[in-house]
Design goal:
- This protein is of the alpha/beta class.
- The longest helix has 19 residues.
- It has one domain: Alpha-Beta Barrel (TIM Barrel).
- The protein has an eight-stranded parallel barrel with strand order 1-2-3-4-5-6-7-8, surrounded by seven helices.
- The two termini are 15 Å apart.
- α1 packs parallel to α2, α5 crosses α7 and α11 packs parallel to α12.
- The structure holds 2-phosphoglycolic acid.
- 2-phosphoglycolic acid binds next to β8.
Length: 252
């Protein structure tokens, strides 16, 4: 059975002290919970990673980064490599978030290099895909997602693809308060699973977790997560509020 996952994407929020306090409160909340059958991941800014290892009960809460360099090491001022991320004890990294694609012009080729770096460093990758509103209006959203997956992921060896979690995040739903309907999410997730099946076969397709992201909140989480091909969520804004994040985990 494939894994259910809720990943919080803190984005560029919380300084070190705030992050420690917040992660500590989540750790406390989940400490004594025995009924949570969901992998919970906190994707924090780089500055928090090294302390997360010390403070989180990693049987309950995993952690990861939101980006990594496309190169292994060397003269790349300001970059953080996948190997450095791994050395903090992090297990995950988000790659291909639409904010990276849009504001930092990260294209499929670069994202593929980052993915390979991450996997070679022993990280698991939450690989984001999704269309902008114009593409949905033009009814090319399936083609857009197909290309993102083909160019970003589908040259991976089958054993490496097992380290991938896919996050479908329609860009028009991120931080906007607009959410894909459960039917729209299910339709795309099913399509993505079909693509994975075509490339890697039925068993891999059935095992890959596909998360939905884009204005997930406690009030819409249960309905979206009840769809058969939606295996959890990548949560932005609501991951910064303890009550909301915990409620979404419970919904999954
Ligand atoms: P949101 O962000 O939940 O604030 O819409 C989701 C994301 O960007 O991963």
């Amino acid at each position: 059975m494939r894994k259910k996952i809720v990943a919080g994407n803190w984005k560029m929020n919380m300084d070190l002290e705030e992050g420690i306090k917040f992660a500590g409160s989540l750790n406390e909340y989940f400490k004594n919970k025995t009924d949570v059958k969901v992998e919970i991941i906190l994707c924090t800014p780089f500055i928090h990673l090294a302390v997360m290892k010390e403070m989180l009960n990693q049987k309950k809460l995993a952690f990861g980064a939101q980006n990594c360099a496309s190169e292994d090491s060397g003269a790349f001022t300001g970059e953080v490599s996948a190997r450095m991320i791994k050395s903090t004890g992090a297990r995950f990294v988000i790659i291909g978030h639409s904010e990276r694609r849009t504001y930092y012009h990260e294209d499929d080729l670069l994202l593929n290099k980052k993915t390979i770096q991450a996997i070679n460093s022993g990280l698991e990758v939450i690989f984001c895909c999704g269309e902008v509103i114009k593409e949905r209006d033009q009814e090319i959203h399936f083609a857009v997602v197909k290309k993102q997956l083909e160019d970003g992921l589908f040259n991976l060896a089958p054993e490496d693809f097992e380290k991938i979690v896919i996050a479908y995040e329609p860009v028009w739903a991120i931080g906007t308060g607009l959410t894909a309907t459960p039917e729209q999410a299910q339709e795309m997730h099913k399509y993505i699973r079909t693509l994975v099946k075509g490339k890697y076969g039925n068993e891999t397709a059935e095992n890959v977790s596909i998360l939905y992201g884009g204005s997930c909140k406690p009030s819409n989480a249960s309905e979206i997560f009840s769809k058969p091909d939606v295996d959890g969520g990548l949560i932005g804004g609501a991951s910064l509020k303890k009550e909301d994040f915990c409620a979404i985990v419970e919904a999954v």
